[in-house]
Amino acid sequence: MTENWEYVLVATLRTLRKTMASRSEDKAAATEEEPTETLPSQKREDRLRKFRELHFKRNEARKLNHQEVVEEDKRLKLPANWEAKKSRLEWELAKDEKKKECAARGEDYNMVKLLEITADEAERWERKKKKKNPDTGFAGYAEAQFRQYQRLTKQIRPDLQGYEKQREESGEDFYPTSNSLSYGTHVPTQDGIDRMVEDVEKQIEKRAKYSRRRAYNDDADIDYINERNAKFNKKAERFYGKYTAEIKQNLERGTAV
């Protein structure tokens, strides 16, 4: 009886061991099969993620490229010296604001400006001033006209607020092209017309002061019949006056032979 019980116990242990071994083999096989099944899907997800990233980057590059093209087109439509004029206008606006602030505080703008200038800047400005000669004399009508143009444009104080408002209202037609129909439709303001009239009157007044036309001398001898003859007589007097002075005096006294 005891031998039978021991035999049954040994058989049961062997059966249990076989069952546990088979289960462990099934688990190992399952773990070996899972990576093979999940590996293709993981690769597919990685490829899709990279594709989405590339698609997003391409769209971003397209937007940035379009913005750069639009900005470059605007820059090409601007005048060649637009940046220099813009920086100068900004500097002049800042200067006007500084003057207003000094006037509100009761301070002298020139003194405040001198306090802000360093010794190096003052020395460099003096050297530049010595080298620069704004008026080299009359060299030609083109050079004189260009200097006059420079003097007049430096006096202009543009209305930047009105300029920005007009640009917003005009939109794309603010920078006309060959296909634009808004050419010649701009009407100047009354303030602009008044400034132009005032400037022209100042030019006329200044030109009248420096006129080279000589005043008429009532005491001078009249030996001409018109303006052209007067100029000829002056030239003849300048070259031959010393030779004909005695003859002229004898004719005036009536003692000429």
Please describe what this structure looks like.
With 257 residues, this protein is an all-alpha fold. Helices cover 75% and strands 0% of the residues. The protein contains eight helices and no strands. The model is unreliable at 32-37 (pLDDT under 50).
Radius of gyration computed on alpha carbons: 49 Å
Low-confidence stretches: 32-37
Number of strands: 0
Shape estimate: elongated
Largest sheet: none
Distance between the termini: 194 Å
* Portion in beta strands: under 5%
Helix-strand category = mainly alpha
Mean of residue pLDDT values: 77
Helix percent band: over 70%
Order of helices and strands: HHHHHHHH
**Helix run count:** 8
Keywords: mRNA processing, mRNA splicing, Nucleus, Spliceosome
Subcellular location: Nucleus
Protein name: Pre-mRNA-splicing factor SYF2
Region (Disordered): 19-46, 166-189
Quick summary of this structure?
The protein has 257 residues and is mostly helical.
Core attributes:
mRNA processing, mRNA splicing, mRNA_splic_SYF2, 257 residues, mainly alpha, Pre-mRNA-splicing factor SYF2, nucleus
Secondary-structure map:
Elements: H1 2-77, H2 82-105, H3 109-116, H4 119-131, H5 141-154, H6 160-170, H7 190-209, H8 227-253
